[in-house]
Amino acid sequence: MKIATYNINGIKARTQALLDWLAEASPDVVCLQEIKSVDEAFPREPFERLGYRVETHGMKAFNGVAILSRLPLEDVTRRLPPRSDADDPDEQARWIEATVLGKRAVRVCGLYLPNGNPAPGPKYDYKLAWMDRMLARTRTLLGQEEPLVLCGDYNVIPQAEDAANPKDWIEDALFLPQSRAALQRLINLGLTDAIRARNQSPGHYTFWDFQRGAWERNNGIRIDHLLLSPQAADLLVDAGIDKAVRGRDKPSDHVPVWIELDA
DNA sequence: ATGGTTGTGCGACAA
Predict the structure, then answer these.
(1) Is the Cβ–Cβ distance between A229 and A142 less than 8 Å?
(2) Domain A2-261 belongs to what topology?
(3) pLDDT tens per residue, range A104-115
(4) What predicted TM-score, i.e. pTM, was given to this entire model?
(5) Active site residue A52
(6) How many angstroms separate the CA atoms of A103 and A63, rounded?
(7) Do residues A227 and A156 make contact, with C-beta atoms less than 8 angstroms apart?
(8) Which stretches in chain A have pLDDT values below 70?
(9) Where are chain A's structural domains?
(10) What is the pLDDT of residues A1-28, one digit of tens each?
(11) Pairing state of beta strands A224-228 and A148-153?
(12) Does the C-beta of A9 come within 7 A of strand B?
């Protein structure tokens, strides 16, 4: 089972780019972020023609996540559950889960973690609260002791080696110590960072800013991650970053990241 | 220090 995550940065502007990549990469499951579309306006038909089921959780203009799958899906859940009845509902469209029925059943969560800039401020507070909520949800899911994949745009640079110019990010919400500590707490629950597990060397990026010639200078960061439960990590066969997609016409600022599971 | 780019939807705003 090949599972990918791809921040598409506007599905309407990049429907053809996504179709092209699907045809060549042939993933079974794709978690999309920043679809920037309400559910009714998502261009489902071309993906359904390729054999993909389409489950969306969108909102107007911003954010929005989706799962495309050519394997059957069960138990689709939208929104991150509140930690208690006193908690606000998760009002931004940033989380979708489904069980993918392959050779094995795999629970797949597609997430678009808040950017959090500028920090400090209310947006950064929202990011940290969201990460705390994700931590609680992950604890619950890990309790099932089943293959689980948490994938998406985490908007967190895990370590200095995950940025071409780490000094540029010192005061950024993507690299602040609190952001990295919150990601580490999540990983410490027992998750495996698939790209790191398969490739220890630095310099593997998933995002290059549209501005200041970041792509041309390879000034990238690694912020799109696939984190695996122990049961999923046991099934890990391969993982990769489709970097070449960033060099095409009118690309997203992110590229697809994927794993192959024996499932 | 500032400005640089892009998508959505048509004015900002988020990134």
Answers:
(1) yes
(2) Deoxyribonuclease I; Chain A (3.60.10)
(3) 999 999 999 999
(4) 0.97
(5) no
(6) 32
(7) no
(8) 86
(9) 2-261
(10) 999 999 999 999 999 999 999 999 999 9
(11) antiparallel
(12) yes
Taking phi first (over 0 means left), then psi (-120 to 50 degrees means alpha), and beta for anything else, what does residue A62 get? beta
In whole angstroms, how far apart are CA A13 and each of A18, A89, A153, A166, A171? 10, 30, 19, 31, 32
A153 is known as an active-site residue:
yes
Return chain A residues 27..66 having CB < 7 Å to nucleic acid strand B.
Answer: 36-38, 41, 60-63
- CA–CA separation, A34 and A5 (whole Å): 11
One-letter amino acid at A185 equals R
Q: Among A6, A28, A52, A112, which one carries the catalytic annotation?
A: A112
Q: Which residue has the tokens 């993982």?
A: A239
Q: Which of residues 244-263 of A touch strand B (CB under 7 A)?
A: 250
Q: For residue A99, which amino acid is it?
A: T
